Amino acid sequence: MSRSMTMIEAINDALDTMLARDPDVVVLGEDIGYFGGVFRATAGLQAKHGRTRVFDTPISEGGIIGVAVGMCAYGLRPVPEIQFADYIYPGLDQLVSEAARLRYRSAGEFIAPMTVRSPFGGGIFGGQTHSQSPEAMFTHVAGLKTVVPSTPYDAKGLLIAAIEDNDPVLFFEPKRLYNGPFDGYYDRPARTWKGHRDAEVPDGHYTVPLGTARMVREGEALTILAYGTMVHVAAGVVGQKGVDAEIIDLRTLVPLDIKAVEKSVEKTGRCLIVHEATRTSGFGAELAALVTERCFYHLEAPVERVTGFDTPYPHSLEWAYFPGPVRVGEAIDRLLAAD
Amino acid sequence: MTNEAAPPGANRPVLELHVPEPRFRPGDPVDFAHLAIPLAGAQMRPDEACEPAITYPLCTDLIRVLGDDDQAHGPWNPRLPAEQLRLILRQMALLRTFDARMYRLQRQGKTSFYLKSTGEEATSVAATHALDAADMIFPSYRQQGCLIARGYPMVEMVNQIFSNRADKLKGRQLPILYSAREANFFTISGNLATQLPQATGFAMASAIKGDSRLAAAWVGEGSTAEGDFHSALTFAAVYNAPVVFAVVNNQWAISSFAGFAGAERATFAARAIGYGIAGLRVDGNDALAVFAAQRWAADRARMNRGPTLIEYFTYRAEGHSTSDDPGVYRAADEGAGWPLGDPLARLQAHLAAIGEWSAQAHGAMLEEVDAEVRAAIRAAEANGILGHGLHQPDTTLFEDVYEHMPWHLQEQMAQALHERAVKYPDGGAAGVLGA
Prior knowledge:
The complex is a heterodimer of chains A (339) and B (435).
Chain A: E1 2-4, H1 7-21, E2 25-29, H2 45-49, E3 54-56, H3 61-74, E4 77-81, H4 92-98, H5 102-105, E5 115-120, H6 135-139, E6 145-147, H7 152-164, E7 169-174, E8 200-202, E9 214-217, E10 222-226, H8 229-241, E11 245-249, E12 252-254, H9 258-268, E13 271-274, H10 283-295, E14 304-306, H11 318-321, H12 325-337
Parallel strand pairs in A: 2-3, 2-4, 5-7, 6-7, 10-11, 10-13, 13-14
Antiparallel strand pairs in A: 1-8, 6-12, 9-11
Helix pairs in contact in A: 1-7, 3-4, 8-12, 9-10
Chain B: H1 82-107, H2 121-129, E1 136-138, H3 144-149, H4 154-162, H5 195-208, E2 215-220, H6 227-238, E3 243-249, E4 252-253, E5 256-257, H7 271-275, E6 278-283, H8 287-302, E7 308-313, H9 334-337, H10 343-353, H11 359-381, H12 407-423
Parallel strand pairs in B: 1-2, 2-3, 3-7, 6-7
Antiparallel strand pairs in B: 4-5
Helix pairs in contact in B: 1-2, 1-10, 1-11, 2-8, 4-11, 5-6
C-alpha cells in the first residue's frame, strides 16, 4: 500500500516507522516534541511514542549534537533535528571532531550512528539565517555522510537508510520542497506534491540505499548533476527548452555514486553541475574535479557550474541570488554550443 | 566660554580592562595564606536526596576528611575498610610510578608525548572507587588513574603510548588518549570539554532505557570556559540526568592560571548554583574526601535526584606535559608550598596513624608497583616503540573511517600501498603489509 505524501509527511512517516521498529531510536530537537516541529516534521510523534522517545531540547545545537554522541555511546540511535541548517554551526565541533571520528579514534569501540536532520536551502524568504546550504562543510569531513533528498519517496527511504546506517549522517532537507516541487519560477503559483509520481510513498519500512544516485531523466545531449531543490529547477528548464539532457539526482554526496556520474558523462561528453550553495569551494568544485579527472577524454566542453553567488543569502534579493532558470538555461546553452 | 568644549562623557571614569594575573611568577616568594583552608570534618553532609540548594554552602566551603593529625574526621568520613584504603593507596602509588617511568621513556625518545597526573592522583583513583564498574567514565586527558583503579591492564596503556603493533587503537591516537570500552572508559578526544555533553547524553540514554548506569565525567578547570561545559550542565539540569561532573581544579591550564577560567570571581563548584543542581567543593588531595563526595553524587544520581557538579581543589605538581616547562611561568616553590599537601603522603600517613600501615610495608609496596610498571613496559616494548619499525599495516589508515570503506577511500588506500611499494621495493619492514 502507498499514498500520496508531501516531503514533510514522508519524513514524519520515516521517523514514525523507525520509532516503532527500533526501540533504540530517539528523536530530539528544538520545538520537535509536543508542538511537532516548526515545519511539522515530527507532528504527532511524541503523543504516539512517548516523551522519552521524542522530546524538546534546550536551544543549544552544540548540546544537542553532544548529547546525541553520548547517547550513541550508550547504544541508542538518536535522530537530532537542527531546526535550520543555518543553526548547525554551534554543533560543528561535536560533529566534526567527535561524531565523525569516534569510530576511527577508538578503533571501533565506540560509534556514532546518529542522523542529524536539518532543513536547508532557500526560496522561502528566510534571509541569511534560514536559507543556507552548508553541505560542503560536511562533505569535507572524513567520517561523515551527507544526504539530500529531492522527493517524498526518496526522503522516506533515504531517511530510514540513514537512521539504520552505523555512521553519522547529515540529512539535509530542501525546505522549499517540503510541500511541493519547485521549478524555480517563484512568481508562478506554488505546486503541491499531489499527483506527483515521486510523491507516492509506500507504507512501512523501505530504504533507498545511501550512495546511489537516481536517474531523473535519460538523455544524450549533456549530463546535469544536481541534488535537492535544483533537481526540480534543472528538470523544469530541460523540459521547457526541449533539451535531451540526462539529469542525475545525486541524493547522497558522500559516499558519492561515482559510477553513475562517470557512465553518464562518458555518454554525453558534457557536464553541468547545479547547486544552490555558494560557489567557491562548494560541492560542485569537487564534482567538477572528479569529472575532469575521470572523464576528461570524453569531454567535449568545459565542465560548468551553476551555483548560488558567493554572498550571504539575501532577503529581498533572494531571487537574484537563487540559481534559477535563467542561470541554468544559459549554462545549458553554452555547454551545447561548445564544440 | 572656554575655547574647547569638553567632549561628551569626558567626566566619566576611564574604562580599564582587567587581565588576570596569578599571585606568583617565577622568582616570587610563595605564600598561600590567602587560601582559606577549613578544618577537616567541619563541613556538613546533607542527605543525598536533598534539595540542590542545601548543598550551596558547600560550593564555597571545602569538604575535608583527613586532618593535620592524619585522622579521619566528620560526617564525610566514608569509613572505608583498611583493605580498600590500602588498595587506593597502592593504585595511587602505581599511577605515580607509571607516570614517572612513562615520562622518562618519552625523554628517551620511545614515544612522542606523555602527561603526568602527579599530585592529582586521588581525583581519579579514589573517585573511580566510588563508582560502579558499569558506570561509564567520560575522561579528560589526565584521568589515567581511572583506568588503573578499574584494573585495566597496564600493558595495554603502554602499547597505546608506544603506538605499537599491539596498540588496540591502531596507532591512531596521540599517546594517553586511551579508549577502553571493556573498562567502561570512553574514548578520550583531545579536544577539551567535548566529553561533558556526551556524558550527559549517556546518562539521558541510561534514564530513557530505565537502566541504573551513571555517567561520570572529568574536566579541567581551564576548559570549564568551553561552551560544552555550559550545554552539558544545562541539559543535565533540564533532564535531571544521572551524571556526575568532576572539575579537577589543579590551578593551571598549561600556563594560564585558574583566573582565566573565572576563578577570581567564583569557585567552580559554585557554577552548580546557576543551574540549580547540587554542587560540592572538595579537598582534591584528600582521598577520603574525594571518595565520599563522588559516592554521595553517584548515590544521589542513582536515586533519580539528578546531576552533581564537584570541584576537586588540587594542584598540578608538575608541568602540563612533556611539551611544557612550568618554570618559565610559575613560581618554583608553588608545589612545595601547596597547603593541601600530597594525596599519596596524606593517605599513607592516615593508614599509619590508624595502625594499618608501616614504613616497611610502604617500602615493599613501592618496590612491587615499580616491578609491575617495569614488567608492563617490558611486555609492551616487545610489541615495539614509536618510530622503530612500522607497526600498523597501511590499510589501517583507511579502516574505521566508515563502517564500510567507500570507493574514494579504496582508491586512496591503493595509492598508499603503491607508495609503500615505491619507497620499499624489497617489501620494507617485516610484517608490515597485511600483518
